[in-house]
Write a structure and sequence with these properties.
- By secondary structure, the chain is an alpha+beta fold.
- It has helices at 5-16, 25-30, 38-43, 60-73, 126-135, 152-157, 165-168, 203-206, 241-253, 266-273, 292-307, 317-325, 331-344, 357-374, 411-429, 448-452, 456-466; strands at 21-22, 53-56, 77-80, 98-101, 108-112, 117-121, 138-139, 175-182, 186-190, 215-222, 224-225, 232-238, 260-264, 282-288, 313-315, 346-356, 378-385, 388-389, 392-402.
- Helix 1 packs antiparallel against helix 4 (60-73) and helix 14 packs antiparallel against helix 15.
- The protein starts with a helix and ends in a 14-residue tail after the last helix.
- The structure holds flavin-adenine dinucleotide.
- The site of flavin-adenine dinucleotide has 38 residues, from strand 3, helix 6 and strand 10.
Length: 480
């Protein structure tokens, strides 16, 4: 029999004690969404069912007890840590869900400088771990723009990626082992070893599972030497994205591993680099880091490759270095941006995809052309590539629009989803992936079948095997 809202709250209070079960209506409304519907928070108009309660767990046993309770009674659970999700992964679309909040599990359990790995509870903000690692001359190498506010559990659950990914990789290359709790309360540890070939890599059942299979309680990530004194910054202005993609490709296939490799189109460059780039110019920039000889050789190699394209004009490296310092988003910057939206009703959104070198420029051009032709009230549309691989790169579309004759609660259907549809359609048409790093959430789940094609059944099989009662974050990854 289905439990009433009151019975769910009562059950949680019995497990956790009343002080760890939040039922304040304002908090519940805020916890019904994430940044996908951020205008609802900014303007205080909420459209989704509020959760029954936020269950703030402080250890693995409590998380297991909540999941056992939820599984027993068929209550939907939405895991949460930093709350910076952008794709609706935190939305409580099922009435009377439990938000399982791990942000109080915020202890760094070890920084092992000999084996170069750190172990944290799921609610440790990445910035806190990074600061502690740097005290010992180490770095996680992970630097998403949400580093100050995102937590380790969410970062693993969304398969996140940082600015230095071209050298260090995405989080999937950093996670050594972890602990997670599965529905029913089954505590599961995947041990920390450098590599093993004892069957499939089961870490990947958890990494990127977006709260739809399990609750991550603990994570162990790799550490690297932190040598900022060797950083080399390089930048160029150029006329075309096609040339920029070609240079990125040449750098990657030549075997260089800059930590940063970015290409901005004129629209996006105007937002960041108008102090040195003309309105119609693209900007290409790199950062090389690591041991001094590696950083120098990487910078010299990139210089040599770009020199083969005389249309590229070099930018003073100090300008690129200064720009990097302001790249992450802390709570203050996020609040200021929310305030700007409230004041101007001008909204900034982003959508990221990936593709091989042969198709990325076509996706960029065709999606942008359609967005400009089909979407009203745009004030800017452009994008950049910020994560490259030997076989391709990502494209991060960045766009602004004014809300015209439209309430804030209509923004998603009037503007945001139509743009996402165009980007997904063009990406799928050219064989790319509709999600590079923000997770598929609930926002892009309607395209999951097309994204996966004939391997979609494997996704459904995972869900059926690990969450047979379907209580974990319903509607995320797999559409309801
Ligand atoms: C300003 C800004 C900049 C950003 N920059 C980047 C970037 O550079 N790179 C990038 O990859 N992303 C970026 N993001 C997206 C976001 O920060 C990442 O997706 C991040 O990984 C989410 O971590 P979180 O702790 O905030 O997770 P949450 O927002 O709390 O949750 C995210 C998802 O993970 C699930 N989840 C959370 N905790 C757990 C857990 N313990 N166990 C199981 N599932 C869980 C949730 O159910 C949800 O589906 C950015 C977002 C913002 C707002």
């Amino acid at each position: 029999m289905e439990l009433s809202r009151e019975a769910i709250v009562e059950g949680l209070r019995e497990i956790l004690g009343p002080e760890q079960v939040v039922t304040d209506e304002r908090v519940l409304a805020q916890r019904s969404i994430d940044n996908f519907r951020k205008l609802e928070n900014i303007f205080g108009v909420y459209t989704l069912p509020p959760p029954a309660a936020v269950a703030c767990v402080r250890n693995t046993e409590q998380a297991a007890a909540v999941l056992a309770f939820a599984d027993r009674h068929g209550v939907n659970v939405v895991p949460r840590t930093g709350g910076t999700a952008t794709e609706g992964g935190l939305e409580t679309v099922i009435p009377d869900s439990i938000v399982l909040d791990g942000s109080e599990m915020n202890e760094i359990l070890s920084i092992d400088a000999y084996n170069m790995q750190a172990t944290c509870q799921c609610g440790v903000p990445l910035q806190v771990l990074e600061d502690r690692a740097r005290e010992q001359g180490l770095t996680t190498g992970h630097s998403p723009q949400s580093k100050p506010v995102a937590h380790l559990g969410g970062l693993v659950a969304t398969r996140s990626i940082g600015q230095f990914s071209t050298l260090y990789g995405g989080i999937e290359e950093m996670v050594v082992g972890l602990e997670a709790v599965f529905p029913g309360g089954l505590v599961t540890r995947i041990k920390n070893v450098p590599r093993r070939a004892a069957g499939p890599d089961i870490r990947h059942v958890v990494i990127g599972s977006e709260g739809a299979l399990c609750f991550i309680t603990e994570v162990t990530v790799k550490l690297f030497p932190y040598l900022p004194e060797n950083n080399a910054f390089l930048g160029w202005r150029l006329a075309s994205m096609q040339t920029g993609f070609e240079i990125l490709r040449e750098v990657m296939v030549s075997g260089y591993r800059p930590s940063v490799a970015r290409l901005y189109d004129p629209g996006d460059a105007a937002l960041h680099f108008s102090h040195f780039a003309a309105a119609d110019e693209c900007v290409l920039l790199f950062m090389a880091e690591g041991a001094a000889r590696i950083a120098q050789a990487t910078a010299a190699g990139i210089d040599e490759i770009v020199a083969r394209h005389p249309e590229c004009r070099k930018v003073d490296s100090g300008l690129i270095e200064t720009w990097f310092r302001d790249l992450v988003w802390d709570a203050g910057k996020i609040t200021a941006e929310d305030e700007r939206i409230r004041r101007t009703r001008n909204v900034n959104r982003t959508t990221e995809i990936s593709a091989d070198w042969s198709s990325v420029n076509e996706i960029y051009e065709s999606a942008l052309k359609r967005i400009l032709a089909e979407i009203p009230d745009l004030t800017m549309a452009g994008g950049h590539s910020s994560h490259s691989y030997i076989n391709g790169t990502n494209m991060y579309f960045n766009y602004f629009y004014d809300l015209v004759d439209c309430g804030p609660e209509e923004e998603v259907t009037r503007y945001y989803l139509p743009i996402i549809s165009i980007i997904c359609e063009e990406t799928l048409r050219c064989g790319g992936s509709i999600v590079h790093h923000h997770g598929i959430g609930k926002a892009r789940a309607p395209w999951a079948r097309d994204e996966y094609g004939s391997s979609y059944w494997m996704l459904e099989a995972l869900k059926g095997a690990f969450d047979p009662a379907g209580i974990m974050n319903r509607g995320t990854i797999i559409p309801t």
